[in-house]
Structures are given as C-alpha cells and as structure tokens.
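## retry 2 of 3
previous attempt timed out at serialization; input unchanged, resubmitting
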Amino acid sequence: MHDIYDLVDLPIAYVPFRVQNLVLLALQRYLEAEAFRFVQQWLPKEAEANEWSCAEALELHKLFPFLKRHFRKLPLSAFPQKQKPPPNWHESICAIRHAAVHRISQNRTSLLQMVNNAIGLVWLLSGNCEAKKLYEFWILLDYTLPQTHRAQIDRSPAPVLQTKGSRRAHNRKTLQAQILQQATVRRALGGIFQAIEDKFVLEFRQTLKEIFPASRNQGAVSIS
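## retry succeeded, writing output
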C-alpha cells in the first residue's frame, strides 16, 4: 500500500479509518477483559456490587475510581510486578476508550502509543504473560501500518541568470503542473486504491481474530 499512498498523496502515517476502529476496539475489549479478570479475582464482592457480571459490563473509565476506592483491600500479591502505576495512567487508558467510543481519528503514531499504554496497564494487572500478547500486537502494528515518505517538491535555487520575476513564474508553473499531475493520478488510481484498502482491512481483521480469538469464556475478546 505504501507506493499507492504516495501516488494518491495521502497524509503521512495515514491509517484506513476502518483499521483504526478495529485497533481501538480490540484494545478496549482486551483491557476490559483483563480488568474484569483482575476485579473478579481480587475484589469479587465489590465488582458484583457494581454490577460487573462480565467484561462487557465493565467500563474502563469507571475502573480507576473503583480501584482507588478499594485499593486498601488489595493485597500486595494482586500486582505481579509490585510497582506503582505510572503517572497519568488513568488519562492515557481512558483515552483509548474515548477514541474507540467516539470514533476519533488516529494516525500510526497515536495508535502505537495507545497500544504501548495498554501494555503498561496489563503488565501491572496481569504480569508479563498477558502483556506479551499486546507487545506482539504492537510489533504487528509497527510492521503493518502504512508509513509514507513524501517526495519533496523541488525547491532548488533557480539558475542565477533568471530574474526574480521569472523564477516566481517558473516555480508557479511547476507547482501547477505537479498539482494537475497528482489530481490525474488520484482519479486514475481511485478504484485501485479502494480495492487495495478493502483487501488490507479484510486481512487485518482476520489477523486480529487470530491474535484475540473469540471465546465464550468470561473476559474473552471478540473482534467483529
């Protein structure tokens, strides 16, 4: 997809919106599943009082006030890494849910950062084993999500013999020609690009299902 992206002049680090949504939903559901496992194990009565009967009933933005309220009830063994949460972990994790629920557009960099934040939370709650799955997900995204490298418009100095006015006219004509060429290419490749993107989204969806297999067990992640 990378060469096509350059030809149709998409923004740097553009990620198809459908892929963005798949990534955000997968992250949200995985984090909710891990959080549900945690509260079921260590705070079952309190979770029941909150009517958290399954992972889908638990909302990430409500997890942190819940943990703060019941923190003193948790034994040291509840946190495998025996470390304090990083600063602002509440905001960084809630941003994932907010982006998923409100379908806020992301780019390659922000998606990778969100996965990295999610790794930190899962590492604290569940340890290395569960965090490893998200780390592998991060590696997959880093490898898969498109990166574009824009060809820069030629801004080399005009010949010395040209006057200032003639240089401006030359640059204007060159830029107009480049814009016209890009528009022509975009029209010609529009259908091809859509077909390639559709295939990319389909393959990405299948990959997510392999990483986060659906299950009837509590806390399972389902990618639809």
